[in-house]
Amino acid sequence: MVKNIAVLGSTGSVGRNALEVITELGATYRVASLGAKNRWKMLYEQARRFIPPQVALADPEAARILAAELDGTPTRVLAGVEALRKLASEEDVSVVLLAIAGGAALEPAISAIKTGKTLALANKEALVMAGSLLIPLAKEHGATILPVDSEHSAIFQVLQETSRSQIKRIILTASGGPLYNKSPEELERITPWQALQHPTWRMGQKISIDSATLMNKALEIIEAKWLFNLPVKQISVLIHPECIVHSLVEFEDGVVLAQMSEPDMKLPIQYALTYPERRQAKVPSLDLSEIGQLTFEEPDWERFPALQLGFEAAKCGGTLPAVLSAADETAVAHFLVGDIKFTDIYTVVRKVMDKHSVVENPALEDIIAADAWARQEAAKCL
Ligand code: MG
């Protein structure tokens, strides 16, 4: 059976890797549609290569240019954020690969879930903001959420091999990012360029900065809580700079199963697309004798306090995770243009979280309101 895939966020790092994976998988995997924010030139190239019936750009002006460029081809161009929601819910689509950055992924995620799709989720903010709504919604509509985030894919893969009920804890590994060995004084003076130099993963700007602050791991704690239905006390984090062990699960008897591979996003993307099968992948075999050593250490909570925020928000729940996510997105955007220091990202998020009156059991409106409030409050802290 042909799997028709909507790739949303196709011009980003995960999206581009996904298109390579789909190409490698051959004829039974088809690109049904492509969506992105505003990079019309790259989307044009992708549309010419995959010839999907529909593509969409959230930015109307970029969509207008793209429509003119693709005039006379079989591909129709849709414009605006609602167009991304539409692509996520089209009847002929069976898998939505959602790789849009930030909170903008929430609405397309809801559309995909409400139409019972398989949601291959590369974005973490949607679950961080609204896991309390998305998980029951997926149950209600028979939608499946498959993690693409490498750590969560690792845990998901380990859990395929064994019974879930015996989990003692899961251990998310963290590379530590490019700044893990910097002193507190050095961290004060880090430039956006330095923070963007991730030693292992080539990723978009927002997630690269999140990796440098360890806020990415904070978001992943919340993501894991929802994906694996675990209390926060059963989630821990371990620094592992080699990025070979992508996460671990400890069972009741003390046995730990780990998932290992070369660090290549094509693997978790492919697993989400071919699940429950495994297929050959165009990734080199893992050569442990070449790597020689794998190292692990406890995270430094003092120098990287963002982790604490993740655990706090995960424990508290309600609207607090959405506030953490939105405040971080705002602070990161300002750090990238030089408005604030690297270490201010944490301070801004901390302040906004402290100020927030948490709504327990929020409806979608409460989450969207908390998100908007947090962005405003974060901007006031600058
Ligand atoms: Mg990850």
CATH fold topology of the largest domain: Rossmann fold
Radius of gyration, whole Å: 20 Å
Count every helix, treating DSSP H or I runs of 4 or more residues as helices: 17
Shape: globular
Q: What letter string, H or E per element, gives the SSE order?
A: EHEHEHEHEHEHEHEHHHHEEEHHHHHH
Distance between the termini: 53 Å
CATH-scheme architecture of the largest domain: 3-Layer(aba) Sandwich
Strand content bin: 15-25%
Classify the helix fraction into a percent range. 40-55%
Broad CATH class of the largest domain: Alpha Beta
The low-confidence parts are none
Number of strands: 11
- Could you say how many structural domains there are in total? 2
Q: Bound compounds, please?
A: magnesium ion
Folded structure, characterized:
This protein is α/β, with parallel strands linked by helices. The chain folds into 2 domains: 145 residues, NAD(P)-binding Rossmann-like Domain (Rossmann fold), CATH 3.40.50.720; 144 residues, no CATH class. The chain is 48% helix and 15% strand. It has a 7-stranded parallel beta sheet, sandwiched between helices. Helix 11 packs parallel to helix 14. The chain is globular. The model has no long low-confidence stretch (mean pLDDT 96). Bound molecules: magnesium ion.
